[in-house]
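Following up on my earlier thread - several people asked me to post the actual chain instead of describing it. Fair enough. Here it is, all 94 residues.
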Amino acid sequence: MKNKKAPSKIINTTILDYNAHPFNEFTTALKAKCQKSGETLVRMRNGTYVPVSFRLDEDDEPGFECFKGDCSFIWGADGKSITSHNFDLIEFEK
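Reply from S.P.:
Thanks for posting it. Predicted structure:
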């Protein structure tokens, strides 16, 4: 049996406070992937995977969102959930 290489992942090791630069290394990479590929499957701190899109509108600060089916979440540009730390964005595949 051949050993399969595990998918390469980017981990959000730093969640910055709201006074810091809004994007970190993780969310900058997530933003780029969303802009290139559209929705990106991202794992939240509670282990749930959700399809995330980058959002940028005139009335809000930039960030991420999921409004599909039962999914209804909004995150800041740093990956923090506006609802609960259990929903922070922490991992996606490159």
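The chain is about 15% helix and 35% strand. That should answer part of your original question.
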